[in-house]
Amino acid sequence: MPDADSTPTFTITDLAREFDVTTRTIRFYEDEGLLAPQRVGRNRLYSPRDKTRLKLILRGKRLGFALGEIRELFDLYDLAQDEKPQLRLLLEHVSAKRALLEQQKQDIDIVLAEMTALEERCMSILNQ
User: Fold this and answer.
1) Are 57 and 95 part of one and the same domain?
2) Is 84 found in the same domain as 59?
3) Residues spanned by the domain of 2
4) Are 10 and 43 found together in one domain?
5) What tens digit of pLDDT does each residue of 93-106 get?
């Protein structure tokens, strides 16, 4: 909902529709201090910054980041004179998530191999 003389703004419905989330989800992120819309009466108006932050929150959640970790990255970004501290922290988090996913992948491969062996034994017994 852009205003002719200012930065474009978005309603909660606009963002919910664009990112395929519920308005309740967006309000939750607001309650958590991750989004800070303007209030005009009872309406919330989200800035392009809020829209970008919502996109980053959702991406972070898909990558397995906790809201606290996302908040920490936002806080670093808001306080930093440059992006290096934020990028270092992001790299640490990504590295930790990658290691966890690699371990889970190995665990899944082992379980799948065991299931295959079990299926083969069962089929062998049934075919006797």
Assistant:
1) no
2) no
3) 1-64
4) yes
5) 889 888 988 999 99
Q: How far is CA 43 from CA 40, 73, 101, in A?
A: 5, 28, 41
Nearest-angstrom CA–CA distance, 3 and 6: 6
Is residue 75 a part of any domain in this protein?
no
pTM > 0.70: no
99 and 51 fall within a common domain: no
**Does 73 reside within a domain?**
no
Angle between helices 23-31 and 12-19 (to 10 degrees): 110
pLDDT digits (tens, 9 = 90+) for 7-47: 889 999 999 999 999 999 999 999 999 999 999 898 899 99
Q: What are phi and psi of 111, to 5 degrees?
A: -65, -40
Name 59's Cβ contacts closer than 8 Å, sequence gap at least 6.
Answer: none
CATH number assigned to the domain comprising residue 54? 1.10.1660.10
Q: List, as own/partner pairs, every contact residues 40-46 make where C-beta atoms lie below 8 angstroms and the sequence separation is at least 24, other chains included.
A: 43/11, 44/11, 44/12, 45/1, 45/9, 45/10, 45/11, 46/9, 46/10, 46/11, 46/12, 46/14, 46/15
